[in-house]
TrEMBL record:
Matching SUPFAM superfamilies: Acyl-CoA N-acyltransferases (Nat)
Protein name (Swiss-Prot/TrEMBL): N-acetyltransferase
Biased composition range(s): Basic and acidic residues: 1-15
Domain N-acetyltransferase residues, every copy: 26-177
CDD domains: NAT_SF
Chain spans, region Disordered: 1-33
Organism: Streptomyces californicus
Cross-referenced Gene3D superfamilies: 3.40.630.30
């Protein structure tokens, strides 16, 4: 049976320059129970502390936040988990939205397209579910390439101090009015 959740559509291939080692291809798919240890390991390796790896485990235990089909991995060519991206349920005021966090690529696979592949894949999965809005707090140079723009343009604000350009929003469904107000994160974020 064909597994329609698996995708290689989000490959960022290097130009063909005659190099003997072509860029790896990234297969993206939702995580399975068998991936949990690898997902923890990718987050633990990508960030300076285990906090993000522990955050994922705490979110997985929160049925109000966790959306199993929006926890995504990118596989390296050998089938191991190379990168990870997670969308969980948050709210802007009372309106449902999604928080993108964390995003992580194993250090040995960084800057080879795995992060972009897994982010594009999880955003597509959210769009297919009919989700309307995604928020991310992160590197202001990284997320605009996916269409994220300052959340403040929509009157969306976090309940903590952060540089304006670091809190960004992506509207997935233009037909839904974009809510404004305070972002309410799942409890596991501790904010
Ligand atoms: C950020 C991260 C997920 C990017 O994944 P990746 O697989 O290395 O990234 P990709 O290969 O898909 O994309 C590379 C691009 O991202 C940019 N990029 C990578 N890390 C970046 C960073 N920390 N800040 C800004 N840009 C970054 C690169 O400059 C590159 O841009 P270019 O295509 O214009 O040259 C990865 O570097 C990582 O795990 N970092 C540590 C954990 C982290 O900071 N997570 C994000 C929290 S917001």
């Amino acid at each position: 049976m064909t597994d329609h959740t698996r995708s290689t559509d989000h490959t960022d291939e290097a130009p063909r320059t005659g190099s003997p080692s072509p860029a790896p291809r990234w297969t993206t798919r939702p995580e399975t129970a068998a991936d949990r240890a690898a997902v923890h390991a990718v987050n633990a390796a990508a960030f300076p502390t285990p906090d993000e790896a522990d955050l994922v485990d705490a979110l997985r235990a929160d049925p109000e936040a966790w959306l199993p089909e929006l926890s995504y991995v990118a596989e390296a060519p050998d089938g191991s988990v190379a990168a990870y991206a997670l969308l969980t349920r948050c709210h802007v005021g009372d309106a449902p939205a999604l928080a993108l966090a964390p995003v992580a690529t194993l250090p040995r696979y960084q800057r080879q397209g795995a992060g972009q592949a897994v982010i594009r894949a999880v955003l597509d999965a959210a769009r297919l579910r009919g989700e309307a809005l995604v928020l991310v707090l992160g590197h202001p140079e990284y997320y605009p390439r996916f269409g994220f723009a300052p959340a403040s343009r929509h009157g969306i604000r976090p309940g903590f101090e952060v540089p304006d350009e670091a809190m960004t929003a992506l509207v997935l469904d233009d037909s839904v009015p974009v809510p404004s107000g305070l972002i309410r994160y799942p409890a596991a974020f501790g904010v």
